[in-house]
Fold this sequence. Notes:
Elements: H1 2-17, H2 23-40, E1 47-48, E2 54-55, H3 57-77, H4 85-105, H5 110-119, H6 121-131, H7 137-166, H8 182-195, H9 204-211, H10 214-235, H11 240-265, H12 271-291, H13 295-326, H14 337-340, H15 342-355, H16 362-375, H17 379-404, H18 421-436
Antiparallel strand pairs: 1-2
Helix pairs in contact: 1-2, 1-3, 2-3, 3-4, 3-10, 3-13, 4-5, 4-6, 5-7, 6-7, 7-8, 7-9, 8-10, 9-12, 10-12, 10-13, 11-12, 11-17, 12-13, 12-16, 12-17, 13-15, 13-16, 13-18, 15-17, 15-18, 16-17
Subcellular location: Mitochondrion membrane
Domain NADH:quinone oxidoreductase/Mrp antiporter transmembrane: 107-391
Transmembrane segments: 7-40, 52-73, 85-105, 111-129, 141-162, 182-205, 217-238, 244-267, 274-294, 300-319, 331-351, 371-395, 407-431
Amino acid sequence: MLKYFFCLIFLIYMIFFGVFGGYMVGVVLGFMCFFIELFFGDLWSWGEVGFMLGVDLISYLLIFLSLIIFFYVSYVSNFFNMNNYYGYIYCSIFVFMIFVLILLFSSLNLLLFYLIFETSLIPISLMIAGWGNQWERLSAMIYLIMYMFLSSFPMLIILLNIDFNENLMNMMFVDLIFVSGLIFYFLVILMFLVKFPLFIIHLWLPSAHVEAPVDGSMILAGILLKLGGYGFCRFLVIVLSEGIFFNLFVVVISLIGVVMVSLNCLWQVDMKSLVAYSSVVHMGIGVLGGLGMMNWGMKGLIILMISHGLCSSGLFYMIGVLYNRFMSRSMYLMSGLMICMPSMGLGWFLLTSSNLSAPPSLNLLGELMVLSSLMSWSMLVCFILFFGMFFSAFYSLYLFSYVQHGAIYSGVVGFLSSGYLVEYLIIYFHWIPLNLLFMLMNLFL
């Protein structure tokens, strides 16, 4: 099992120092390590690295997603070339964050999982408060901290109660733990539904996305939202008997959220806010896959987490590219960009089409698996979810059409350039694995 540990260290070293001739070779070697371990490693069951660390297929996929997102972020920020005091602090926050995330996804002890889960809140809060764009970043940080702390503290009491009564705190045997009672059911899943986030308890997400820097938005959408999904996959089995009766309540809220937030995206004028609300829609569809209590739907949830991490991270990066040129995120100032930036328009088309689940993107596979798993649960739910998916395609078309077509705003022509090579590399590094993994769908079946 140490081969996985050494593989991860090798990937971190390549990401942060760009060895073997630069980043281009680094990402190729990283994908080679990923596929070698995936095809020839024993990842279909739990394997222990140490006393409290281990990985299975879900952990390994999310760890690799974290590594490649941090690879892209190192391109964006170039923080190892910041030769000042604030640059060193920024670099330290990123290194600490990736260390915490790898420990989180490979943790086997439930109490250690909870502690690291809460520790992951520290670096993103510092990033929003220290390197945000507006003064509202302080209120966004307070929103984030209060939502996470108030939702997760009851989970600590439940874990301590499990340790006292059953003396069983190993993630590999979590399916042997059962918690009964309506209150315990909602307290267990509340910690992860807030991090997901579920509709009604999602209000921290738009403000955090809008106020965070581009690097922070990429990490928040690409990785940190997946912490809730990962915990949801692991801990839903604890309340399996209660979920038979109470899952319907959460399903109704999630369905309302998918439809309402999709319509809400259609009157957004801030591009970053629109992509942030679209994350609520995609994660709401993922929640439905998990609550369907079928293996097919749970795999659809995992696929949606990976696809959303790549797709929304790429969209936030392209919005950051435009913000560096226009110093604005308003869609009114972005119209007609295909006239002066046609090459960048191709990247917008590819990622927005993936965001609306056009084939052959991984989003399509995940949504079809969730939809098919719910058919045996309730056809009414499938009918409403179908309309939610239909509306979710509208805002992606709205974003692409409004930004790329129309008359260009005359005040920004002097600030435009077609794009740099590194910008195209990051965009296509997001899009290529998002569509290549569709060809390997048998890995998820």
